[in-house]
Each structure stands twice: as C-alpha cells, then as structure tokens.
C-alpha cells in the first residue's frame, strides 16, 4: 500500500461520518423532521454486516477500494430505507393510520420495488466481483464490498427499517404529546394575565 493510500485510509472515518451527516441533513429537510431520518440512518449499519463478514472470510484487507465501496453503501442502503419510510410517513401523517399499521403497509408496498432495484444493482456489479486480469484486485475489492453490502441491506432492511420507523415515530409522537401537555397549562396561566 502506498503512502497516499495510507494517508487517505486514515481519513475514512471522517469521510464516513460526513457522508452520514449529509444524508441525515438532506432527509431532515425533506421530511421536515429531526426524528424521521433516524429510521433511515439506522439502516446503514445493517448493510455493513455483509462486507464485514465476507471480507473477513475471504481475508481481503480493508484497503482504499473497500472503503470507497463502504461509502457507496451509505447511499445505497439509505435508498432502500427511504422507500419504506417515505410511504410509512404518508400513511401515518396524511392518512392518519397508526404507526405500526403504516410501517407494515409501507413494507408490503415497497417490498417488490426494493427487491427489483436492489437485485438489478447486485447483478450489475457481479462482473466486478469475478473480475480477472490487470487491476482485478481493485475491482474485486469494490465489487465484493458493494455486492455483499447490498445483499445484506436488501434482506435486512425490509425486516428492520419498519421496526426502526415504529420506534422512532412513537418517540416523536410521545415528544409532541408531551410538548402539547406542557403548552396547555402555560396557555391557561397566561390567559388571566392577558384579560387584565
């Protein structure tokens, strides 16, 4: 590994954190909520289980190319989670459905699109996984990382993202209800003062 690769490798944690922060801020603006994006962000570690297990089993070192693949997985795993959370929020906020029912309906509605797009991508990176010839190691490192990460993300996201949504949304609803109760007595106390 060259000096430049080692130098870049030491900055991967900063880049990884920055990528997560950018995804969170964009989603917070889109959903107009500080809580809803947490359901999406929690899906990212699920996608990292695949590369961790496969790279360890194949004894592939954590090099610059696997790190690039890992950062790519942030966007790809977030995409699957966004598909579920978006529909769940619509059902819960717009249609007034309970949180659990919204999450289950969203997972059912988005199950097929997630499988179709994810497996199309997985098959698309398969040539990188089985690459041979000059530069094959670099292509294999990125390919195996993304390939295994997307399989893990696809299989686990459909199961866990609805659960994350239920927990986070129930917490947000509890916070709103708590604020509403706190605002009620304050308004009642201010009302006599305004009458004078």
UniProtKB/TrEMBL annotation:
Transmembrane segments: 12-28, 34-58, 114-136, 142-168
Family matches, as InterPro entries: Acrflvin-R
A single Gene Ontology CC term: plasma membrane
Signal peptide residue numbers: none
Pfam families referenced in this protein's UniProt entry, alphabetically: ACR_tran (PF00873)
SUPFAM superfamilies: Multidrug efflux transporter AcrB transmembrane domain (SSF82866)
GO molecular function annotation: xenobiotic transmembrane transporter activity
Keyword Transmembrane helix listed: yes
Record keywords, A-Z: Membrane, Transmembrane, Transmembrane helix
Gene3D superfamilies: Multidrug efflux transporter AcrB pore domain, Multidrug efflux transporter AcrB transmembrane domain
The protein's name: SSD domain-containing protein
């Amino acid at each position: 590994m060259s000096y430049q690769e080692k130098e870049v490798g030491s900055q991967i944690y900063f880049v990884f954190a920055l990528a997560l922060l950018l995804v969170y801020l964009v989603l917070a603006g889109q959903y107009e909520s500080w809580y809803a994006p947490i359901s999406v962000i929690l899906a990212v570690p699920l996608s990292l289980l695949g590369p961790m297990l496969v790279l360890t089993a194949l004894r592939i070192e954590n090099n610059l190319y696997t790190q690039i693949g890992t950062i790519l997985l942030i966007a790809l795993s977030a995409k699957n989670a966004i598909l579920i959370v978006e529909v769940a929020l619509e059902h819960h906020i717009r249609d007034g459905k309970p949180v659990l029912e919204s999450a289950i309906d969203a997972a059912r509605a988005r199950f097929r699109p997630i499988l179709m797009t994810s497996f199309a991508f997985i098959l698309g990176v398969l040539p990188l996984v089985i690459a041979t010839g000059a530069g094959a190691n670099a292509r294999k490192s990125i390919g195996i990382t993304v390939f295994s990460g997307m399989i893990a993300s696809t299989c686990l996201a459909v199961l866990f993202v609805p659960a994350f949504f239920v927990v986070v949304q129930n917490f947000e609803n509890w916070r709103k209800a708590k604020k509403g109760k706190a605002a009620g007595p304050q308004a009642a106390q201010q009302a006599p003062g305004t009458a004078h």
